[in-house]
Specification:
This protein is mostly helical. The protein contains 7 helices and no strands. It has one domain.
Length: 171
């Protein structure tokens, strides 16, 4: 496996994990009285990994805008969903911080964050595949490294956070 294949496999894995945690959080807010530990772990994951994915998408948007002007519709969609994702991450972060410190109740957290979970990294799979194809066609290895920022530390952090959420899902 070459470096680009490794990066793409890691991105796919993380996006799958993010989707799983997003779904878990969305379902957990519907449960009464709610699993606070699971919601806190899921929110922590979504904030940290959502921010990193937003940074990746922002970097992709910058590079692809310079390289791929014919795909304007896709880049516009990426910019729109990125803005929504950035707003959602900040909402979840502020509410997660408030819940973690006892400033708000679980019910307040749920009502504030429930709708935001779906907006974190929401680009549909077929559109994400189009972005990936543009990257694959036009990126050099240094551009892959620069835009994805995947290294041992980020991989281990994502895996640790994901394991925390999945352990609470099984509990």
């Amino acid at each position: 496996m070459n470096e680009v294949q490794f990066i793409r496999r890691q991105l796919d894995t993380e996006r799958g994990h993010l989707q799983s945690v997003r779904t878990t959080a969305s379902e957990a807010v519907l449960e009464v009285p709610g699993n606070q530990a699971l919601l806190l772990a899921a929110a922590s994951y979504l904030v940290a990994i959502g921010r990193r994915h937003n940074e990746q998408d922002r970097a992709h948007l910058s590079v692809l805008t310079l390289k791929q002007p014919p795909e304007r519709d896709l880049l516009d969609l990426l910019a729109t969903t990125l803005a929504a994702s950035e707003r959602a991450v900040e909402i979840v972060h502020s509410q997660w911080s408030a819940l973690s410190t006892g400033q708000i109740t679980l019910e307040t957290f749920i009502s504030a964050c429930g709708p935001s979970f779906a907006d974190i990294s929401p680009l549909p799979a077929h559109e994400r595949a189009r972005v990936n194809e543009l990257c694959q066609r036009g990126y050099s290895i240094p551009e892959w490294r620069a835009t994805t920022r995947i290294d041992t530390e980020t991989i281990m952090d994502e895996r640790k956070r994901y394991a925390e959420v999945t352990a609470l899902m099984r509990a």
